[in-house]
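Why does this matter for the project? Reviewers at the last site visit asked to see concrete outputs rather than summary tables. In response, this paragraph embeds two records directly. Each consists of the residue sequence and, immediately after it, the corresponding structure tokens. Nothing has been edited or filtered.
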Amino acid sequence: MGAPMSDDARLDFCRRLAADAGRLAHGAFGRAAMLPAKGRHDEVTAMDREVERTVREAISRAFPADAILGEEDGASADVGCAEFVWIIDPIDGTANYARGIAHYCVSIGVVRDAEPVVGALHDPSHDRLYWAARGAGAWLAERGTTRRLAVSPIDALTAATVECGWSLRRPQADYVALVDRMLTAGCAIRRAGSGALGLADVAAGRTEGYAELHINSWDCAAGLLLVTEAGGRINDFFAGGGLLAGNPILATNAALADPLAALACVPLRHDA
């Protein structure tokens, strides 16, 4: 089944743009780790802004009627009224990037009427390009091959691995309680420092869930679509102003959707 015709051009463009932006970011990878703390922060911030500026300019040229929301430069004036909104995280996993840890990516998602329709992630450290279009599946290109993604079939909490993202926007005690519930239920827990790649891991069947008590839309717009197109379940992230204000997030495989939703205290959608 092909992607809806109105999304074809955006999918092809998004996929190429994410790959180009990932290569741009990776060109300076490791440089920040050699600097003192303040210089490291400045180096990463400068690269964040350069990547986002490059992506924004490319989108504006190719789709001038579309709105743009980015982590660094915020929302374009038409974000509330445009049919399509591009959502950019120029470097997701900046703490890893700053320390020379090869776990970060560029994330570009497109939403239409508050529904993700196109998304792409590029993990340049491993040359992995993930992409998805609504109704057309989720895919991964790496090492010269392309394969369709599918979530894990694991159906026992005691065999599951769940990544629990941490946000300063919620009390530390709430995060500790989330991890405690998962551990008590028998899940293995990880935290790798990139929400976008955490969602890609769920879509690829490497983990069974990703939960975070608050995440911004630029961290997850592409990843949410990857999960649903790979057969997984998600919460209604864009409800209640999630586009601009962020929301809690839960993405799971299908087999453990109900128990993980209960543990995370985040209800899942039934139509995605």
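We now turn to the second protein, recorded in exactly the same manner.
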Amino acid sequence: MSFFNSDLTEAEFGAKMETVLQHNALGMALAVGHRTGLMQKLAESQEPKTSAEIAATAGLNERYVREWLAILVTSSIITMDKEKGTYFVPQHCVSFFKNPANGFIYELIYMMLAPVLPQLQQCFKNGGGIPYSSYKDIHEVLAASSNESHKQTLVQKFIPSIEGMHEKLESGITYLDVGCGVGVPSILMAKQYPKSEFYGFDFSEKLIDEARKEAENEGLKNVHFVLHDCGIFDSKYEEMFDFITAFDSIHDQARPAEALSGIFKMLKHGGIFSMIDVNSYSSPVDNIGKPMSTLKYIISLLHCMPVSLFFDGGVGLGTCWGRELAMKMLGEAGFKDSEEKALEWNPFNVHYISKKY
């Protein structure tokens, strides 16, 4: 039996709580900066500017901009010349400011999750979950961040990381993305590999409609989006696909075990299933000190777990279901030789590669 105990003194604990409060305040400011475009405008500045100049460039009110800048100055995020009243982003911060996927996108997510707290309080008392419809804008923000990553890495890095997959897609195979959202992976690959057929399944009618419109706008004939709950197996798709992916979608499923079992049945013999999911371990103790562990758990508590538990029979797997449980469930679904593989360009996730023999 193993235990982990915090050995902080009272003074150290107090200092830590002060740091938490300061970081929470900074996080809210970063979220505001992202939503207003101030982060990007600051990053584009080639020289120090006054609050009036920054506000004019961003088309915003100077007084509000000045107060926002004060938060970043006191947090040592940007520099200020007191005599000249100018502000500047240090060079090492520029790329972070330009690309929201670098981190402060999660501060925006926190703000978007906050409105569900009253519903979450009821869930603590009565169980159950929270419907997707309660989360305003958050799925669009998550999708935008994920889709930007796909555009930069899917064809260039992810596909080549799977032995022989590039060649198979070039020659012509049938692909499925489970929990496809607005369909970015399928669309990107459909353009890159015209000889292959691409499918995307999702239970959200809104997202499927958006995916279909984008495919139509691109003039793609080899991509198909289907409104389908992957937790319910449909025999017409049995052994239909050579390659199946699930990008951060299995842990959100109401019935993840059934979804994995269905994926196994839909895969042809010799086919590959790539499950990209959150890089964590199944016990909280094993996640101590690991990058962004607390962030992963709070997103799980406020979103991933309750959206699963909202459905009848939902199990609430949670964001940090972990490597051990993931491998166990893959084995129970029928995959006997699964492999865990790090994604060098994305430490937030781990790649589970499974083959159907």
